[in-house]
Amino acid sequence: MKFFSHYGVNDFVICAGYKSEYIKNYFANFFLSNSDIQVNLNQNTVRILNKQKEDWKIDIIDTGKNTMTGGRLKRVEQYIGDDDFYFTYGDGLSDVDLNKLLKFHKSNKSIATLTAVKTPERFGKLSINNETNIVESFKEKPQNLNEWINGGFFVLSKKVFNFIEDDETIFEKHTLEKISEKGMLSAFKHEGFWYAMDKLSDKKYLEERWNTNKAPWKVWE
Q1: Cα separation, 70 vs 169, whole angstroms
Q2: By C-alpha distance, which of 164, 198, 192, 195 is closest to 178?
Q3: How does 10-25 read in b/e, with b if 16+ C-beta sit within 10 Å?
Q4: What pLDDT does 51 receive?
Q5: Phi/psi of residue 3, each to 5°?
Q6: Cβ(68)–Cβ(168) below 8 Å
Q7: Which architecture does CATH list for 67-211?
């Protein structure tokens, strides 16, 4: 969220589900969690000493524990305005330029634009037309790949909701594949940093980079 805020994006909709109460409690007590406080037990008061604030407006929507990725997006449709919007997962870190991503999306007039990155064999494979940057095929997690893959930083048109049927819709498989078949899925190729935190070893690796000031995704001051 601090990464998006660096680019002027301060309105967020969180598609919550499993343990959503932890997310709600964190933001409901944001000042207490992120600031120095003074607790006066005699007067039963709590005073914020140095308020840590962010210019954010956050809608935390419970989209169900078992809802698929497309279904979660569909459930928050009413909370999204009429403009194109960013969409991302909670486990990916990158230094992709969001302004350039948005400009690229608008210039292609696609229904959806994804950020294409290169990474080892464990993500969905993309076939991209080098001249138009249109995604010609989208296959979720095929075998034996070391090519462009879906990096999870999207810009979407409101038309994307026409490709989501219900809670069982998987965004990566059903939605993106259908949009790709219509030639309306574009790929913004990002050659810079990208990493997904899927395992404990990923968490340790990313925390080590953060602690040693080698975190390319930290673009804010």
Answers
A1: 5
A2: 164
A3: eebbbbbbeebeebee
A4: 74
A5: -65, -50
A6: yes
A7: Alpha-Beta Complex (3.90)
- Structural contact between residues 63 and 71, judged by C-beta atoms closer than 8 angstroms: yes
Tokens, residue 66? 């078992």
Eight-state DSSP code of residue 134:
B
Closest to 108 (Cα-Cα) out of 147, 135, 70: 135
**Dist CA 127 CA 193 (whole Å):** 21
- Domain residue extents for the chain: 67-211
Determine contact, residues 174/70, Cβ cutoff 8 Å. Answer: yes
The one-letter amino acid at 193: F
Amino acid sitting at position 44: N
The pLDDT tens digits of the residues spanning 85-112 come to 999 998 999 999 999 999 999 999 999 9
Q: CA 112 to CA 89: how far, in whole Å?
A: 15
Q: Is 109 left (phi over 0), alpha (psi -120 to 50) or beta?
A: left
- pLDDT tens per residue, range 165-184: 999 999 999 999 999 999 99
Q: Which two tokens stand for residue 58?
A: 């956050």
Q: Say if CB 186 and CB 134 are below 8 A apart.
A: yes
> Which residues are registered as beta bridge partners of 167?
none
